[in-house]
Automatic annotation (TrEMBL):
The gene is astE. The active site is at E236. It is an enzyme of class 3 (hydrolase). This is Succinylglutamate desuccinylase. Pathway: Amino-acid degradation; L-arginine degradation via AST pathway; L-glutamate and succinate from L-arginine: step 5/5. Its EC number is 3.5.1.96. It catalyses: N-succinyl-L-glutamate + H2O = L-glutamate + succinate. Residues 57-262 form the Succinylglutamate desuccinylase/Aspartoacylase catalytic domain. InterPro entries: AspA/AstE_fam, AstE_AspA_cat, Aste_AspA_hybrid_dom, SuccinylGlu_desuccinylase. The keyword Amino-acid biosynthesis does not apply. Residues 276-349 form the AstE/AspA barrel-sandwich hybrid domain. SUPFAM superfamilies: Zn-dependent exopeptidases.
Length: 357
């Protein structure tokens, strides 16, 4: 049964009331629901569910890595609450991660550091270091949180024998609108085939558009794919809006498919056919090199917009960036990144015939 401090089953509210750490006297952190599901709270915003019997999938659902990307937070919060209230019976092991609670409280993407640039060790914290002993002055909360999230994902996957199916879906929203309201970023697989089953599953989420990465990255999804061999994706679900102001009907297929995935309910999928999807690969990344960097198109321009050949895209001191190829499209433009970080990607359509399994 639920402990008294979680009697409302509102795990998100509890997380936001304790954004940086759990109360030191909080008990119990492990409890069992009447249906036999074991619940473990590992940290603020981190809850692990293990049903009495479970299948071959170990599933991580992550949200709130960027604090103002709220539709995914609402999706995950509703799933967790339904599990705690036993309205949803799990058939798989599931780990929920609410990534950056202080930023969620502030309604900001990040407080200091963009967490999705500091995975795969980019946070600079060695595995043998005591994260609790690190101060804000030395390393930001967000970098420390990245190191913790890596530890929790490792703990989750390594708690059961190897060889099981591992998945991580890191749910986000975009800063601006998109010509494809929902799309997935598929991290670089180092020559491994793209998964037809995952394309079909995400199509059931009403996600027809995929950005296929061609280089390593420091994102959460790349970390899970490369370090743990997981099927991992960054799922971009609409545009960032304040908490409680999302039209959740637009994401009903995402929520319903994730609910079915973790509960063992039937999911209607179609065999993978490339022409059913919009597939893109990164042609080039444009990084911010100086504080003079500026974008040279309207703030209303949406992700995946194609501009005429030669169009001026951005200026960075004495450097000009222009459209270099027909069909090149803009994605993730953001001039307000730190120096050296990606300010925009240019993508182009791609075929993956012969590269799937």
């Amino acid at each position: 049964m639920l402990p008294a401090w979680l009697s409302s089953a509102d795990f998100l509210a509890f997380t936001l009331a304790n954004p940086e750490q759990l109360p030191s006297d909080l008990q119990p952190l492990t409890f069992q629901l009447k249906n036999g599901t074991d619940c473990q709270i590992w940290d603020t915003g981190i809850i692990c569910f293990t049903p009495q019997t479970y299948g071959n999938n170990d599933i991580v659902l992550s949200c709130g890595v960027h604090g103002n990307e709220t539709a995914p937070i609402e999706i995950c919060a509703a799933l967790v609450q339904d599990i705690l209230l036993e309205r949803l019976q799990l058939s798989e092991r599931v780990l929920f991660l609410f990534g950056n609670p202080p930023a969620i409280n502030a309604g900001k993407r990040e407080l200091i550091d963009n967490m999705n640039r500091f995975f795969s060790g980019a946070h600079g914290i060695s595995n043998d270091r005591d994260i609790d002993a690190i101060t804000d002055v030395e390393i930001s909360f967000e970098k420390r949180r990245c190191a913790r999230l890596e530890q929790y994902v490792s703990r989750f996957y390594q708690a059961v024998p190897a060889g099981r199916e591992r998945c991580l879906y890191d749910l986000h929203t975009a800063i601006r609108g998109s010509q494809f309201e929902k799309f997935a970023v598929y991290p670089f697989l180092h020559g491994k085939p793209w998964s037809e089953a995952q394309f079909s599953l995400l199509a059931a989420c009403d996600i027809p558009c995929f950005l296929l990465m061609q280089t390593p990255a420091t994102t959460f999804s790349y970390y899970a794919a490369q370090t743990h061999g997981a099927h991992a994706f960054t799922l971009e679900l609409g545009k960032a809006r304040p908490l409680g102001e999302n039209d959740m009907s637009r994401f009903a297929k995402v929520a319903d498919t994730l609910r079915a995935l973790i509960s063992g309910a039937d999911i209607t999928t179609k065999p993978f056919v490339e022409t059913d999807f919009q597939l893109f690969e990164v042609y080039r990344a444009i990084n911010k090199q100086t504080e003079a960097f500026e974008l040279c198109f309207a703030t209303s321009i949406e992700n995946f917009t194609q501009l005429p050949l030669g169009t001026l895209l951005a200026k960075d001191a004495d450097i000009e960036y222009r459209v270099e190829q027909p069909g090149e499209a803009i994605i993730f433009p953001n001039a307000n990144v730190a120096l050296g970080q990606r300010a925009m990607l240019m993508v182009k359509p791609v075929s993956i015939i012969g590269q799937t399994a």
